[in-house]
Amino acid sequence: MSNGTGLESLVDQTISVITNDGRNIVGLLKGFDQATNIILDESHERVYSTKEGVQQLVLGLYIIRGDNISIVGELDEELDSHLDMSKLRAHPLKPVVH
C-alpha cells in the first residue's frame, strides 16, 4: 500500500482509473502532470457485462486526459490476481452527468 499523498505515491504501481464516460482502465502509473493527465503502461480496459464475463481489451501505453478522469484508485494486485474475470458479472458504469 502507498503511504504518501496524491498521485506521487502511486507512480510505478498498478492503478484503476474510472473515466467520466464510465470506462475502467487498469495499468501501471508511469507519470502525471499538474492537470492530472496521466500516463499508464501495460494498460487494459475492463468491459463489464451482465451477460458474460469481464472482457479485457489491451491498450498498452495509454494517456488519459485529466479532465476525463473521475476516480483514480490503487489496485491490490494480489487480490486482483485471484479474481476469475470470466465469472464476474456487472452492469457497465454510466457516464458522469454534470
TrEMBL record:
GO CC terms: precatalytic spliceosome; U4/U6 x U5 tri-snRNP complex; U6 snRNP
Any GO BP: mRNA splicing, via spliceosome
Keyword Nucleus: yes
Domain Sm as annotated: residue spans: 2-78
Cross-referenced InterPro entries: Lsm8, LSM_dom_sf, PTHR15588, Sm, Sm_dom_euk/arc
CDD domains in the record: LSm8
Main location: nucleus
Gene Ontology molecular function terms on file: mRNA binding
Keywords from the named record: mRNA processing, mRNA splicing, Nucleus, Ribonucleoprotein, RNA-binding, Spliceosome
Transmembrane spans: none
Compartment annotation: Nucleus
Family statement drawn from the similarity comment of this UniProt entry: Belongs to the snRNP Sm proteins family.
Described purpose of this protein according to its UniProt entry: Plays role in pre-mRNA splicing as component of the U4/U6-U5 tri-snRNP complex that is involved in spliceosome assembly, and as component of the precatalytic spliceosome (spliceosome B complex). The heptameric LSM2-8 complex binds specifically to the 3'-terminal U-tract of U6 snRNA.
Classification via PANTHER family: LSM1, U6 SNRNA-ASSOCIATED SM-LIKE PROTEIN LSM8
The protein's assembly and partners: LSm subunits form a heteromer with a doughnut shape.
Name assigned to this protein: U6 snRNA-associated Sm-like protein LSm8
Species, as recorded: Castanea mollissima (Chinese chestnut)
